[in-house]
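Hey,
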Amino acid sequence: MKTSALSESSRPVWDLFVRVFHWTLVGTVLLNQFVLEEGETPHEWAGYLAAALVVARIVWGFIGSRHARFSDFFPTPGRLRQHLQAMRSGRPEHHWGHNPLGALMMFLLMGLVLALGVTGWMQGTDAWFGEEWLQELHEVLANALLLSAGLHAASAIVMGRIERTRLVKAMVTGTKERY
C-alpha cells in the first residue's frame, strides 16, 4: 500500500512466513542450479520443495498478514501506471509492501518456479521421459529464473536507494526502514 505523507520511519512488514519462504526458496534455487546434479533425486526433491513453497505462498497471499496479501500489492494497470509516472517525475512513491513492479517480478518468479516444477516432474514420467524439447524447456526456464532473480536482487538494491528504504534488510528482519 502506498503512503504519501510518512509520520513513521519503520514498520513491521514481512512476517516470519514470508521471510522463511523467501530465503528457503533462494536456497533451493541456488542448490539446484549450482550444487545438485541435474536429474538426481536431491535435485528433484529440491525442485518439489521449491514448487511446494510457491503453492504455500500463494495460499498465504490470500490468508496471510496485511502486506503478504495479494490484495495489498496486486499490480493493476492503474497502480503500474501511477508508479511509473511517479518514478519518471523523480518523485517515487513509497510502498510499505511491494511496489507494483516488485509485485510483477514476484509473480514472474513464482510462475517460473512452478513451471520448472511441472517440467521437472514431467521429465520423470513414462509419457515424457527423454523428450529433448522438454529438457530444453526446463533449462530455458531455469536460466530465465536465474536472470529474473538476479534482476530482482539488483532492483531491490537500486529501488532501496531510490526510495531511501532498507529493502534487503527488511527481508531479513521483517521491518522496513526509511532513512
